[in-house]
Each structure stands twice: as C-alpha cells, then as structure tokens.
Design a protein that fits this description.
The chain is an alpha/beta fold and 190 residues long. The protein has seven helices and nine strands, in the order E-H-E-E-H-E-H-H-E-H-E-H-E-E-E-H. It has a nine-stranded mixed β-sheet with strand order 3-2-4-5-1-6-7-8-9, sandwiched between helices.
Length: 190
C-alpha cells in the first residue's frame, strides 16, 4: 500500500514518517529512505540522498517499505523514474511512503496510487486538492490542525484523525469524532 504524508514544515510529517519506519523495522520489515536533505534520525536498512542509488535499491530488492522524504525535491529531479515507485514498485511487493509539503509538488499519477493520506497542517489549496483526489469533501472542514495532529484519509474507510504524542515517540489514530470532541473549545478560545 502506498501512502502520502502531507504537511507544512514542523507540522509533524517527518516525525510520523520516522516513527513508522522505526515501527516497521522493529516488526522485521525492510526499510529504505531517500532523504535529499540527508536528514538524521531514520532507522533504516538503506539510506541515501542520491535518487539514482535509491531507485537502484528499489529495483534490486523486493518487499520493502520505501520512504521518500521531501518528495517534491526528490521527485522533481527524477520525475519519470520516480513515477515508477508509485506505478510499478508494487509489483515487487514494495510499499512507498511519499512525504511532501504540498501534494501539488508530485504528479497526479503518484497521488492516485496512494491508498491512504496523512494530512497535517497545510494550506486551503492543498486541502482542496486532497479532498478532490481522495473524494473526501470533509477534509475541507479541518483547516487549522494543531502541530502534531493529522487527518487520516483512506480511499476505502471513513475519515479518521490522529496525533503524535510524547514528542513523536508514539502515535494515536481514532475516529474523527473523538478528536472533534477532545479539541472542542480549544480551537474556539480567543
């Protein structure tokens, strides 16, 4: 299953990605990371800032979780080759997690191959595009998410919400109404 993680700088998207990577590794999964900024803190079997080496790793291996951090930068340099990650890598048993600040930075082909999307604080325009991509108009009702809070949008499930706790050491995902009730009043305060 391919996943899209979208959010502004410091919203929590890289923290969630690293937590997912660590969890997968702890469960015995094989992880590879493409980080154009060479960001630290990833627990992966393979990590590089070189898109060509990352694609080579993906083509030579099977059943990996492939994390593409700062996808807008990474994919922009290797457009056609990176599209293969979304459109063809599943035939090798890969799951790809695309981490991007704005969903418009990556192609419609990539977005349409993602079964799930984690949406952190972002702009109204990005929310509108994701609402259309995932056929989920309710996304538009959640413009002002606090730091480390996110929506979970799936093509085949109801919209859910989540948050990163303990500085990103743990994650909780639940029904949307749990978070609406828990946060009611907090967002209304002056």
């Amino acid at each position: 299953m391919h996943v899209l993680i979208v959010g502004t700088t410091e919203s929590g998207k890289s923290t969630l990605s690293k937590l997912l990577c660590k969890h997968i590794k702890n469960k015995g999964g094989k992880c590879a990371v493409l980080s154009p900024t060479n960001e630290t803190g990833w627990e992966a079997d393979f990590k590089t800032s070189d898109g060509g080496l990352f694609l080579q790793f993906a083509r030579e291996n099977e059943k990996c979780f492939l994390f593409v951090d700062e996808s807008g930068d990474a994919i922009g340099r290797y457009n056609e080759e990176m599209n293969w990650l979304a459109t063809g890598s599943r035939h090798k048993g890969h799951s790809v997690i695309f981490n991007v600040q704005a969903s418009s930075q990556i192609s419609t082909a990539i977005r349409s191959c993602c079964k799930e999307c984690y949406i952190f604080a972002t702009s109204r325009g990005v929310l509108k595009l994701l609402a259309e991509d995932f056929n989920e108009p309710a996304i538009m009702k959640h413009e002002k998410l606090p730091q480390y809070h996110f929506l979970v949008c799936s093509r085949f499930q109801a919209l859910r919400a989540g948050r990163l706790d303990n500085g990103g050491a743990s994650c909780y995902i639940g029904r949307l109404d749990e978070f609406t009730l828990a946060n009611q009043g907090k967002n209304d305060e002056p």
